[in-house]
């Protein structure tokens, strides 16, 4: 039962690769039949679980409610999408975002739920570090706008360089990962080599300090919550 459940969960999640817009597109009829088959298996698994569980216990378990709601939403979305296709109305399968619910909420996925619960409990505790990082990113972006925005600089493609605040925020956010380094600073560096100090300071503060601090906070809090069971007992 466990192997069968995991197989159909994997199949259901894999359908996103073949549904429009798809990496490897398949006819709508093929993907819809496979999805209905997966949903029937999930429904059968849930029905089987209901028969071997006390009635009041089954309905008090939020995992079972989540699975039933996900099945109903998927079927409703599939039906609506199919009707719209008949009338050549373009739409998207919004129910695909609920498919991971099956992976998390089935009884066999205890370890996945435990990891998910630890992530959920960790998020509030890393909010302050994340807000500090975002404040630093926004302040550096404002400094970049004041430094380079009025100098009429252009990128190698001939586009305006650092004149739009939101684009600056995005470029510097990418720079935190060093993915666009040193390309992002070359127009400023060509204008004056002293401007490299701005980008060096940005990388030191945000990549080497804030990212290291953020990683440490996430790791320590996740490890703490992973060790604690829902009832509060230690493993």
From TrEMBL:
**SUPFAM superfamilies, alphabetically?**
Voltage-gated potassium channels
Q: Which Pfam families match?
A: Ion_trans
Report the subcellular localization: Membrane
Give the way it sits in the membrane.
Answer: Multi-pass membrane protein
Indicate the segments annotated as coiled coil, or none if absent.
none
Signal peptide interval:
1-16
Q: Which UniProt keywords apply?
A: Membrane, Signal, Transmembrane, Transmembrane helix
* One annotated GO molecular function: monoatomic ion channel activity
Ranges that cross the membrane:
26-44, 65-84, 126-145, 165-182, 194-219
Provide one Gene Ontology cellular component: membrane
Give the Ion transport domain ranges.
6-224
This chain belongs to the protein called: TPC2 protein
